[in-house]
Design brief:
This protein is of the alpha+beta class. It is built from 3 helices and 4 strands, in the order αβαββαβ. The protein has one domain: Alpha-Beta Plaits (2-Layer Sandwich). Helices cover 27% and strands 31% of the residues. It has a 4-stranded antiparallel beta sheet with strand order 2-3-1-4, covered by helices on one side.
């Protein structure tokens, strides 16, 4: 089985169920930040940026760690209904 972006090894084995998350950060991402989140769908959301993707809990923590690393301000974090996204 190939690697699925945003999913940990435990999730790929089926022990942790992933969900679709939408994370909105303040402002627009620059080139370096966009590359850091290339495993997610990155799209404008008004003056902010939305990051969307299938993540298990370790994958979600990883994304939040990357937000901290790039000093991005978290505006909103939501889990989308199954099948959405």
């Amino acid at each position: 089985m190939g690697r699925v972006p945003g999913l940990s090894a435990a999730s790929r084995r089926g022990s942790v169920r992933p969900h679709c998350y939408r994370i909105i950060v303040s402002g627009r991402l620059g080139d370096a930040s966009r590359v850091a989140f290339e495993d997610l769908r990155v799209e404008p959301c008004g003056r902010d940026t939305a990051l969307t993707g299938e993540l298990d809990l370790p994958g979600l923590r990883d994304v939040l760690d990357r937000l901290l690393k790039f000093r991005l301000e978290l505006v909103e974090l939501s889990r989308l209904a199954d099948g959405a996204g």
